[in-house]
Design brief:
This protein is α/β, with parallel strands linked by helices and 196 residues long. It has one domain: Rossmann fold (3-Layer(aba) Sandwich), CATH 3.40.50. Helices cover 45% and strands 16% of the residues. The protein has helices at residues 14-24, 43-50, 66-82, 93-105, 123-131, 141-150, 173-192; strands at residues 2-7, 33-38, 56-57, 87-91, 110-114, 135-138, 156-158. The radius of gyration is 17 Å and the shape is globular.
């Protein structure tokens, strides 16, 4: 399965740490090939480069400057035409608001991954409702519960973020725990995003 993760890339926090972990630990999910598209270069793009997962750069986007939005949408449309992606994951409402129309035009499913609980009153959340993502994922049960209240009608689930564990001996408990987590992630992705 080929997954394209979309993120702004201009800040570095929990979402970006998660994406860097997905890139770094790609061998944990051999059935899934992740690629990344960012609007801004920064710490995340540098970390993805270090992992050998150089991101596709779509161009700096400012919602207050419509031409920057149009240019980035064109860049994404070209990327989606060239790549044979199975699903596009928009991390946070901002990327969904900016790019959902392009993803829909390409005929691909949209997954909105929300990494923080909100009440849905922010203007980006309200605009995000209009994009009608195919699936919604929260980073915790709490976040999923909050999102299901403001994104009514959407199927909202939660997945805890993977962690990079230190390398230890094969008999250690940490390795067993890590393997169990991989199995959980594999089962979740296979059940929710079957290949087309």
């Amino acid at each position: 399965m080929r997954v394209l993760h979309l993120n702004s890339g201009n800040i570095y926090g929990g979402v970006e740490t998660f994406l860097a972990t997905v890139a770094r630990e790609a061998d944990a999910a051999p059935y899934m090939e992740s690629e990344f598209a960012l609007c801004f270069e920064g710490r995340l793009s540098a970390e993805l480069d270090e992992c050998g997962r150089s991101p596709h750069l779509l161009g700096n986007v400012r919602l207050s400057r419509p031409l920057t939005v149009l240019r980035a949408r064109r860049a994404l449309a070209g990327l989606l035409q060239r790549g044979s992606f199975d699903v596009v994951v928009c991390h946070q409402p901002w990327t969904c608001v900016v790019f959902a129309s392009v993803i829909r035009t390409a005929g691909l499913p949209i997954v909105l991954w929300v990494h923080m609980a909100g009440d849905g009153r922010h203007w980006l959340d309200r605009l995000c409702r209009l994009t009608r993502p195919d699936r919604v994922v929260g980073n915790s049960q709490f976040t999923a519960g909050a999102v299901s209240r403001w994104l009514s009608g959407a199927r909202v689930e939660y997945v805890y973020a993977p962690l990079s564990l230190p390398r230890t001996s094969p008999n250690s408990r940490a390795v067993s725990t890590k393997r169990a987590g991989r199995d959980t992630s594999r089962r979740w992705w296979a059940a929710r995003c079957p290949s087309r």
